[in-house]
Amino acid sequence: MIRAIFASASAALILAACTPAPEADSAESASPPISMENMSETVKVLASDEFMGRAPGTEGETKTVAYLIERFEELGLEPGGRDGKWTDPVTLKHSVVNDIRTLSVSHGDTVIPLQQGLDININSPNPREDIAVQDLPVVFVGFGASAPERDWDDYGDMDLTGKVALFLVNDPDFGVEEDHPVSGLFGGRRMTYYGRWAYKYEEAARRGAVAAFVIHETKPAGYGWNVAASSPGENYAVAGNGPAKPALDLRGWLHEDMARQWLTNAGYDLDELKVAARNGDFEAFTLDDLRFNADLGLSVETVESQNVIGKITGTERPDETVMLSGHWDAFGIGIPDAQGRVVRPGANDDALGLAGIMEIARNLKAGPAPERTVVVAAWTGEESGLLGSEAYAQNPIYPLETTVANFTLDILQTAGPAKDVIQVGEGQSELEDMMAAAAAKQGRTVSPEGLPENGLFYRADHFSLARRGVPVLLIMGIAGGPDLVDGGREAGIEWVAGYIANRYHNQNDAWDPDWDLRGAAQDVELFLDMTTDLANSEIWPDLKPTSEFKGLRDASASARE
Questions:
Q1: Pairing of strands 146-147, 152-153
Q2: At 296, is the secondary structure helix, strand, or coil?
Q3: What 8-state DSSP symbol labels residue 381?
Q4: Is the pLDDT of residue 191 over 90?
Q5: Is residue 72 a contact partner of residue 310, using CB atoms and an 8 Å limit?
Q6: Fewest CB atoms less than 10 Å from the CB: which of 17, 367, 374, 424?
Q7: In angstroms, rounded to a whole number, what is the distance separating the alpha carbons of residues 395 and 188?
């Protein structure tokens, strides 16, 4: 997910180098066992045009799944799915808005037409071939947080049944001054789950809304409109797993400029509303005479996709599992870019993460068999909303109560060796303390997220397990600029910014022979060490009191006794 600032060394030297940062004096990390050449070759294959961007339900998926099974077999893994299979099916509902007959908002006699991809990105998580809504009242719900533990409720007495919810992005305390009354009430700069668009949609649906839109702003969202408007009108949803949940008919991102038009016509100013929504006494209110209208045609199909799962069975405690995971899917075929390219190859996001997981598995198989079972999972549908991991979490193969930990790699930095590893999320589990100890053995330190407002803890597949109480760790290269050996923190920040601006989710996220994978190898080795330690111990890392999911883990404690 990040544009690399490439090292000046030649590709041959980069692939041959396996030494850690010069500052890493520890003899234990003098010869990392991670092969950067293997990782590069894996990405070169998965990100090639032949795999067509690895979209679920396409020929690209067929090729990807076959390749992953072949590689897992070569690594000596056992099939880890149900009934001795390599794959675990994930049924998805895929829909695309392909016929816009009406899409507008009106105020009295004034009608504002909405252009898909420019003013709005609208899709349906509850798809039918035709969705028509007329004159729906629009309710401004501020940040849409209902957080009794923080004595905060944006909804008040508002009934959203049959209405449209309009949200601000991120948390109420994002971007406020330190002396503001709400400062630090949520996560400060660190986004909480209340700030995620996924939570806002879930809460709106639970309260009966027909549609919900989040006003896009680049800084609090963590990415530009080009990302929010990518794949306009498209939606994937898990079908057939777990109890049915309330679902919106329509949802999406609303461009900030268009949101201002809506509010201006209703007699309000967006900047003033952002101030008001940060007061503890704010309550949702209907935007007088503002009405939303849509008459849309959708193509709807059922997609049978697959998670690919392997394992190394434990010798002493096979029913206790340590999980390694990444996602195999990317964004498939898109609109031609300036160079005429249509394949969005997902090289760093997340072919490189999977390459790292395979290197961990290769090293585990080269050593003594672990005492606990190690599960290796390649998820589908991450880019569509963590769907493969969510389907698994709803119906797990290996009980979550006895899943020791999940380690997820989703984007590894390609800018060279680093003096640190970035902690994604904070205060979640004792795995964080273990990571600090493992990093110290490498001669590295742990740094907090540089961009905690982006809510990355809630944006990768580990979260499907975290929200059910499983201790997790995520390494994600865009969590903040690493302190690079060559160029320091400034160079790391530049690399992150360049990747997000130029490569994230588009045709530029391609394999490059000039990647400097020494930093990626450091991070992969870190997870290898932690996996080895946990897989050969009786340790059960606990969640910390600051984790919002600790109660869930505590409730299953008897299963681990």
A1: antiparallel
A2: strand
A3: -
A4: no
A5: yes
A6: 367
A7: 35
> How does pLDDT run across 83-132, given as a tens digit for each residue?
999 999 999 999 999 999 999 999 999 999 999 999 999 999 988 999 99
Q: Are strands 234-238 and 472-475 parallel, antiparallel or unpaired?
A: unpaired
**Cβ atoms of residues 402 and 471 within 8 Å:** no
pTM: 0.84
Q: What is the pLDDT of residues 360-372, one digit of tens each?
A: 999 999 999 999 9
How is the chain split into domains, by residue range?
A: 11-74+313-560, 93-300
pLDDT digits (tens, 9 = 90+) for 123-182: 999 889 999 999 999 999 999 999 998 999 999 999 999 999 999 999 999 989 999 999
Would strands 164-167 and 250-255 be described as parallel, antiparallel, or unpaired? unpaired
- Assigned token pair, 546: 């600051």
CATH ID of 93-300, from 3.50.30.30, 3.40.50.2300, 3.40.190.10, 2.60.260.20 = 3.50.30.30
Nearest to 271 by CA among 281, 280, 259, 283: 259
Q: Write a three-state SS string for 64-129.
A: HHHHHHHHHHHCCCEECCHHHCCEEEEEEEEEEEEEEEEEEEEECCEEEECCECCCEEEECCCCCC
- Yes or no: is domain 11-74+313-560 CATH 1.10.3720.10? no
At 550, is the secondary structure helix, strand, or coil?
Answer: helix
Question: What tens digit of pLDDT does each residue of 312-346 get?
Answer: 999 999 999 999 999 999 999 988 999 999 999 99
